[in-house]
Amino acid sequence: MRSSAASDVYKRQIFNLVKRIICVVILAWITYWSFYYFYYSLTTWKVADITYAPLFFANLAMTVGFVLMLIYAIRDVIQVTKDLKAYNKKVEGTKEV
Taking the model in full, what pTM does it have? Predict the structure, then answer.
């Protein structure tokens, strides 16, 4: 049986995992739409009103930024999952009889 402090740590780790999974889902959705927006600006060749510079460069930067954030968030989910597994092994190894 887990102690109250161990239970709190376990709950925090579970909450942290759920939080990061939600972050990955939201980032995946935003990344998809930013890529769609980049593709749209590339096919329509949108340009800035004053400088006539193509806007797909800015949209590409936004898409690349979201992809990098998504990769980082997936890395965090993997790390938190490993930490949770290690904590479970540690708790099971120190069970009281």
Answer: 0.83
